[in-house]
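Section handout 9: paired folding examples.
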Amino acid sequence: MGVKPDDGWEMPKDQARPSNLELMWGSPKRTARGPRPGLTLDEIVRAGVRVADAEGLDALSMQRVAGELGYTTMSLYRYVSGKDQLVALMSDSALGPPPEPGDGDWREEIEAWVRAMWVGYREHPWLLSVKIEGPPAGPQGLAWLEAALRALEGSGLDTGERISATMFLNAATFSLARLSIDLKPMEDFATALTLGARTGRYPILAGMLADGTFESVGAPQTEFAQEILPDLEFGLRRVLEGIEQYVSARKTAPTG
């Protein structure tokens, strides 16, 4: 497939470049002159996600995305200012929509939310290397926040506490997903445990090493990654149990 020529449309020169928020929430208006563009912003964002999924964020460039679409690089600059802005748009859209509300109780709903986010991070690992500069601001980011807050409505937490719980669960899921992807094979950890056990300075670790708790140490990265999901689910359930106990204690606490 040959490279498609520029379409003749230009960003209005008397207007400032659209911000990330303006592009996330609605494309800028076109000028009347020139033929209709052959590209859309959504197509560019989806192509960027495909490149990042297949080759990683370091391989992403405006030229590489243009090649994926079969257009010239300059065609893309009529829609986004550069790679940084493209990555911001990709980061909001990559996870897709959050899980639809189910028929379960609030705990089942929030567990489904966490698992869906985990799957999204595993499918788009480049998301874990994007710098976080603040709360979610795009349509999909707010949709995920809304879904978690909706799930927690039945928990008994007040509105501020629901936001705090959501931020914690989001951060825990993000961190454990990153751990499952970034860690190299664990031979160095196994060696360190063995050396540490010999010193007698780490009796708890030494005991766990002796009784086989660390039997997965030395496993390849892919196997280690599978061990992280049970850790996430264990922690998630303990957090949700703690919320239930906290709410129950508050209801029964004497007043006055």
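Moving on to protein 2 of 2.
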Amino acid sequence: MKKITTSIVMCSFLAVLPVLSAVAQTPEQWRERLTVLAENPKRGAAHLHRNQYRNPVDTLMFFGLEPQMSVLELWPVRGWYTEIIAPFVKDQGQLTIAHFRQDGVNNLDERSAFWARLSARLEQRIIQQADEFGDVGRVALDPPNFIPVLAPDQFDMILSFRNVHIWHQRGQLLATMQTLFDVLKPGGTFGMVEHRAARVTDLTSYAVEGYTDEAFLISVAERVGFQLVASSEINANPKDTKDYTKGVYTLPPTLALGLENRDAYLAIGESDRMTLKFVKPLEQE
């Protein structure tokens, strides 16, 4: 009987050990893990090259990503950030991606159809590489709505990387922000990276295609109830003059002008970006 009791105690200890290890992890250990994932050669040379512009480790640490969180990533397209976030949270948390609608109903323009095809490829990749990505939830974001409809107050963190300008161009920004606010838990974080328009004065800005005014974007988020708690220059690029023929798409990685001034645009790098951290208040008015 004594041996059986000892065995039970030992088994119980071993069962609890992973939980204790997870609790004992520190932000520095999270940073180390994110760094390994961001620099994983499996991501491919093109994705690794963009680390210098997108600063994924510093950005995700700034937003406060933790491995036990329930995270919603909006319009991941090729999965550049998904490759990092999914493995990071798969053991203790949950990643859900809200991709482009793929049934063709609202993909009437060529750009939307292209994004939908990329979203379908990412879905297949997640399924085929389940050991790496984990059990990733998948819904569609057809601004301002999720398909299927998501329950309110269910995510610890929502992340949007370079999507907001599209919602704004289509007149869907305010309504989409409200939808995001509704599905985020009270106390949860909404992290946003977006192409930043050039400021002319304290009250005006100059925005070509793809760029959004930072003050305006903050005001829209605050209008639906978000509170701005921090901003960062992690993804700033002072070389970006923001006055190009085809807007932000002139710069890499799109390089919309092809060979025209290609070397100059490559030397500039990717766009100047705002990095904003909002929270949903615990107590709502």
